[in-house]
Design a protein that fits this description.
Chain lengths: 188, 158
């Protein structure tokens, strides 16, 4: 029976490793953009901190304010533990969202967040890295001139910058809090 | 008429009082006579520098005919447009719509994640607790004057 069990154990270990790798995402994420203080920002500078990333734009009437409100509630719920997590709000509309505009936007929320912008190429690279997407839609009939359709997922990175969870727009405050607590509970 | 009739006098008095009160009771005949009413209107706050925001409300129609909201205006912004958010192909899309239908004996909700009124070119900051005035026009020409409370960004949770 012993000999028969060993291969099974090995298979189990391999399965767990595969699942673990899949759950933890692949390589750690990294990118460089410009923050809302107009300083260059490197994701690698946040190693040791849990990170939430989402994409949006400041002319967004709805999704982005709602996500930021939700994350403010997450911060409140986390209490002291919230110092272990940083939110990154990456604009997909860099023409309109200068660092000043992003700073104004974030001033409305009680949340440890950085607004990030950059050149179109820099932003596209980050969007691709996370498997997100956006599309600029001309709206000549509107004073807005164009609107930006975008994916609304929220990405949770562990302290090593690896993607551990993706939350849909509909995720509740509790689900996000639990996800962050799980990351913070890991050693390191 | 010279003969006193208390009942008639009382009736006349009642009619006179009622007539006297009429202009007070119905100062806006257009809006009052419309079966469409706007309720619970609110607008997201906007600090200095922010040029856009959105208004949300409920439109009720007690009439037997469906009506359409076709345009609107407000003194706090250059333009008011009717817009809709939709989830399509995994993306949230925002696009202008030509009209918003208020079904007969029904209602339509303008709320986050769906239909809303977009304000472009804000002329001043909107501070939570303030009230702005929004004027809405229906397809039959009715104009609804709607007060909308400015709410904090933090105030609305899904």
């Amino acid at each position: 029976m012993r000999t028969a069990r060993r291969p099974r154990r090995r298979a189990l270990a391999a399965l767990l490793l595969t699942l673990g790798l899949a759950a933890c995402g692949r390589a750690p994420h990294d990118f460089t953009l410009t923050d809302h203080h107009a300083q260059r920002f490197e994701l690698a500078s946040l190693r040791g901190t849990a990170v939430l990333v989402f994409f949006g734009y400041s002319s967004c009437p709805d999704v982005c304010p709602t996500t930021l409100s939700k994350l403010s509630a997450v911060t409140r719920r986390l209490g002291d533990a919230s110092t272990g997590v940083k939110t990154l709000y990456v604009t997909v509309d860099p023409e309109r969202d200068t660092p000043e505009v992003l700073e104004t936007d974030l001033s409305l929320f009680r949340l440890d967040a950085l607004g990030l912008t950059g050149t179109r190429e820099e932003i596209d690279a980050v969007v691709t890295q996370f498997g997100a997407a956006y599309e600029i839609v001309p709206t000549p009939e509107s004073a807005g001139e164009y609107s930006v359709s975008h994916t609304t997922d929220l990405y949770l990175l562990d302290r090593e910058g690896r993607l551990v969870r993706t939350f849909a727009y509909e995720a509740t405050v509790e689900e996000i809090v639990e996800g962050i607590q799980a990351v913070l509970a890991e050693g390191g | 008429m010279t003969r006193h009739c208390p009942a008639m006098q009382r009736a006349l008095l009642t009619v006179t009082i009622a007539l006297g009160m009429l202009p007070l009771a119905a100062p806006r005949l257009t809006a009052q006579s419309s079966p469409v009413t706007a309720k619970e209107a609110w607008v997201r706050e906007a600090p200095t520098g922010r040029k856009v925001t959105a208004v949300f409300l409920r439109l009720e129609n007690s009439g037997a005919t469906e009506r359409h909201l076709v345009r609107g205006a407000t003194e706090v912004a250059d333009t008011l447009e009717l817009h809709e958010m939709k989830r399509e192909g995994g993306m949230m899309r925002m696009s202008p719509v030509p009209r918003i239908t208020v079904p007969a004996h029904g209602e339509v909700m303008l709320r986050p994640g769906g239909l809303h009124l977009m304000l472009f070119g804000l002329r001043r900051p909107l501070v939570a607790g303030d009230t702005i005035r929004v004027s809405l026009t229906l397809d039959d020409g009715t104009r609804l004057e709607v007060p909308a409370e400015v709410r904090s960004m933090m105030g609305r949770m899904p």
